[in-house]
Design brief:
This protein is an alpha/beta fold and about 400 residues long. It is built from 13 helices and 5 strands. The N and C termini lie far apart (about 120 Å). GO terms for molecular function: hydrolase activity; metal ion binding; nuclease activity. InterPro entries: DUF8040, HARBI1-like, HARBI1_dom.
Amino acid sequence: MADEIKRRREEDDDMMLFIFPAMYMLCGTTNSEKIPRHISRLSGKERLQEILEGHVMDCKVAFRMEPHVFKTIANYLREEKLLKDSRGLRIEEKLGIFMFMLAHNASFQDLQYEFKHSGSTLHRHIKSIFKIIPALTYRFLKLPHANQTHWKIRTNPRFFPYFKNCIGAIDGTHIPITIDGEKAAPYRNRKGTLSQNVMVACDFDLNFTFISCGWEGSATDARVLRSAMNSGFQVPNGKFFLVDGGYANTPQFIAPYRGVRYHLKEFGRGHRRPRDYKELFNHRHAILRNHVERALGVLKKRFPILKVGTFHRIKNQVRIPAAAAVFHNMIRLLNGDEGWLDNQPDNIEPTNFVDLPEGDSEYQNDVPSLSNQMISGNNIRDMIAKKMWEDYVRN
């Protein structure tokens, strides 16, 4: 019996001598050894250079803009001393990290893999760009000059002189938000998801001229507008924006007639012409107000992070829509192309998009300061619409 036990122990020892080297070869290291995380042949700087100097589509996919636009924006941030080069990380790389995050909703793990920097380095430099978004918003989102009528109105007899005092269009849009459970209730929208209600104004060149972020998803569009006005959003005297039915019709915010054909598809091929001054007004109002819907469509196609929940702290989540609007305007100012977006697949898997409501379809009479101006607004709208109809019938 003793000989049998000794033999089995010797066989077990022989087996262990075989198993341990095999396990070592499979694992590649012992627990005491560390594998370096960033072992790519390309550093973050070299990866950026590869994107900027490669095929133009590489830059469009990575940063949602052309290389020359990217370089011009980086130079602007440097010249205006909004950002500074730091040891081992130039402004171009900081901007690239931020734009990649904005374009792909990239996590810090994704950014570490892409740009070969530590999580703390990435966090620090993304934070530095979030901090300058308010300053960039002030510089690049500006209301049009009050004494000028936009050429799209001035040169088109369908719109001039009726809309000569119109300086743009306003809409509300929901952007997903990620927030702790005990704070989530006010952000729950009518679809049951969590969002912030963002108000934007744009001109007829599809540039954003104002943005208000951070209101809870349960808030109505009219309440967000009132908040913006209380915070300094002012419409020049005698001018107005076009709004949809979710807002009160006032002298400063002209809405379409309720209960009357409005959407462009209702006036499309095969549908009857406008039958009265209200339908004619609604049709032309819809054509002009469609600019804000188009601008939002381009913005969300360029930056699909606006369709998903993110990992950022609330303060920065609120600044993401403003950042997207700022870079949208800068890209357009530098003649960046956006036609390529039409056939570009989303950078983010559409199954991750949050189900969000459209803007309000009807004004809820929940803002007394706006409701009190509706009689004056209705008189101005009637005056415009009846003059428009008179000319339409005569011609």
